[in-house]
Amino acid sequence: MAHNITIALDRYDRHFPFFDGTVKAPEGFTYQALQIGQSDTLRDGKSRHEQMIHHQSFDVAEFSMSTFLMAIDRGVPLIGVPIFPRRLFSQSCMFVRADSKMDHPSDLIGRRIGLSSFQTTLSLLAKGDLKFEYGLPWEEIRWLLTSAEKVKFDPKPGVIIDQAPKGTDLGLLLEKGEIDAIFMPHPPHSVMKGQVKTRRLFRDTQAEEKRYFDKLGYWPIMHIIAMAPSLVDQHPALPLALMDMFAQAHAICDDYYADPNWARLPQIRHLYEASRDTFGDPWKNGFAANRANLERFIHYSFDQGLISQRYEASKLIVPSLLAT
Asked: How many Cα atoms sit within 13 Å of 127 on the Cβ side?
């Protein structure tokens, strides 16, 4: 009898093949793909990360990289499959007022910046990039948070972290000058809808991201695929099978863009071709191709006081997949 596994995912284009069933399960398995949002409620629910870290509510889940590092550090029964379904550059997620004179991280020293939570993966990446890429210690910034932390931690001494009242719109605070910047992957609706006029900190963000990519050789990881070690013990072939399933989904998704009208954007095929020429295929899975990326996140997390030691990246991954 086939073993059915639940897979909790967001509804990205590269995950459509799971939701429409075009990804084929390996022999001996079936799967149920669940649309579980994080901040937003999707078809099958929300709070995917919290459900996975506190209750292991799914067999397999797309999971916050930062929270995953903290979970491993604290002995939570999770292990990673080297599949990374969400990636972002921090530079695209740094917003200031449209009339701001600031255009480089060095201009942010002593300023007040709004975040979702301190440990959100984009927050972790942005703070780390400020310090180690741009020479601005994140400790010299005042942080305002809008969301509760998923995993408790003790902030480093001297770091100023304030919690905004529930329902606070950071965009409106930015407009009024009560904060100086917002670092978020999903800016408030007041920003996204144009009510509050903003721009990205870097005036040529795409050029800066290309420089960063060329220097480091990777697109920073936001999420990892996580599962329980007990499930690996029960089904040793499953982790590698998952890598094959996500490879199928990647190939199917890539074919979507052969249709120049697949998406709503009028020039989507041109954008696809330009991205391919600029970055090649930045969605490489496997441990070896992502080891330096993972090590950088471990470094950042330890520096920010979120984990207790700078452990080896191999500690994150199912042992049988370390050769991938």
From this structure: 30
Give me the phi and psi of 64, to 5 degrees please.
Answer: -55, 125
Confidence label for 66 from pLDDT (cuts 50, 70 and 90):
very high
Q: What is the pLDDT of residue 39?
A: 83
Answer whether 3-88+219-321 and 90-216 agree in fold.
Answer: yes
Structural domain boundaries of the chain?
A: 3-88+219-321, 90-216
Cα-Cα-Cα-Cα torsion 302, 313, 118, 53, nearest 10 degrees, comes to: -130
Q: Kindly indicate the confidence band of residue 1, based on its pLDDT and cuts at 50, 70 and 90.
A: confident
Radius of gyration of the chain measured on its C-alpha atoms:
20
Architecture of domain 90-216: 3-Layer(aba) Sandwich (3.40)
Condensed to tens digits (0 to 9), the pLDDT of residues 40-58 reads: 888 989 999 999 999 999 9
| CA–CA distance, 305 with 192 (Å, rounded to integer) | 32
Query: Which phi and psi (to 5°) does residue 4 adopt?
Result: -90, 130
- Would the pTM of this model clear 0.90, i.e. be above it? yes
Strand order across the beta sheet in which 112-115 lies: 161-163, 142-145, 112-115, 181-183, 94-97, 198-200
* Residues ≥6 apart with Cβ < 8 Å to 5: 29, 30, 31, 32, 59, 60, 231, 238
Chain centroid, CA 310 distance in Å: 20
Phi first, then psi: what are they for 8, rounded to 5°?
-95, 120
Specify the fold of 3-88+219-321.
Answer: D-Maltodextrin-Binding Protein; domain 2 (3.40.190)
Q: Residue 187's Cα: distance from chain center in Å?
A: 15
List pLDDT tens digits, range 242-289: 999 999 999 999 999 999 999 999 999 999 999 999 999 999 999 999
